[in-house]
Amino acid sequence: MVKFLNFKDRELVWRNRKELKTTAPGVYTNEDFSEVVRQKRKELLSKLREAWDRGDSAYLKYDRLITHPSKGRHDQRESSVPLTSTPKMDVPR
Q1: Three-class SS state of 35
Q2: Do residues 11 and 17 lie in contact, with contact meaning Cβ atoms separated by under 8 Å?
Q3: I want to staple 29 with a disulfide (CB 3.0 to 4.6 A). Which of 17, 47, 54, 73 is the partner?
Q4: Mean pLDDT across the chain, nearest whole number?
């Protein structure tokens, strides 16, 4: 177990964890979340899988679910907004 004094050091190791797997076999990394956060993430797993099944890009960030609709899908709210045109104004010459 490692405890970092600087957040920047922790982020540097976390971003390079894939390289660590290849250079130091048997060493693994995972985040140490509190029990409350682990429970919240566990509850969000079903919604995460639903988003993946719809083809959306989704991931857990700390105790939140982040989703982005797939590029092929259009959001219902966006498609129901009527397009308006601006009236042409006569400009004196």
Answers
A1: helix
A2: no
A3: 17
A4: 79
